[in-house]
Specification:
This is DMT family transporter. Pfam families: DMT_YdcZ. Keywords: Membrane, Transmembrane, Transmembrane helix. It comes from Martelella mediterranea DSM 17316. It is a single chain. The chain is mainly α. It has 5 helices and no strands. Among the domains are: about 45 residues, no CATH class; about 55 residues. The radius of gyration is 19 Å and the shape is globular. The N and C termini lie far apart (about 40 Å).
């Protein structure tokens, strides 16, 4: 049992779990709203609208929060890796793909279930090979069990939705 527990110094604070949970809820809402936009227009327009709206909100928040460098507080940061700029490309692809999937027989729950499974699979691959600057780590049986359970749960969600 001891091997399953993480040392106290490495355990994330409760705030991070709450933030991750909220992120998942917001992601499901975003996916649905973008799919509604896509239903009434098309997936590309939904993606463009989502990112344009996000840009406006981000600029407004930056203005409100006044994120400027304070005098005397010079912080040296390394330059941004070129691949970090790909986040927007993947974000646009996510909106388009999710809008198409939600407006299919998969519906919102099926699209989210498959999306969750693919996120976990890619995350494990990224951890294993150290993609995008992540420290590489060995995977173990627990990782495979987690993937199997998520895939099984996703299939149950999809099959239950098909019979409804």
């Amino acid at each position: 049992m001891k091997a399953l527990l993480m040392p106290a110094a490495q355990r994330p604070a409760l705030l991070y779990f709450i933030a991750a949970f909220a992120s998942g809820c917001v992601l499901a809402m975003m996916t649905h709203l973008n799919a509604v936009m896509s239903f009434y227009s098309n997936a590309m327009f939904a993606s463009w609208t989502a990112h344009a709206t996000g840009t406006v909100v981000s600029i407004a928040l930056l203005g409100l929060l006044g994120l400027r460098k304070r005098a005397g507080a010079v912080e040296a940061k390394p330059s941004i890796p070129w691949w970090a700029y790909l986040g927007g490309v993947f974000g646009a692809a996510t909106v388009v793909c999710a809008a198409l999937a939600v407006n299919s027989p998969l519906a919102l729950s099926g699209a989210i279930a498959i999306g969750l499974a693919s996120q976990v699979l890619f995350s494990l691959a990224a951890d294993y090979w150290g993609f995008f600057g992540l420290p590489a780590r060995r995977l173990d049986r627990r990782d495979l069990v987690v993937v199997a359970l998520i895939l099984a749960g996703g299939l149950l969600v999809i099959m239950a939705g098909a019979t409804a």
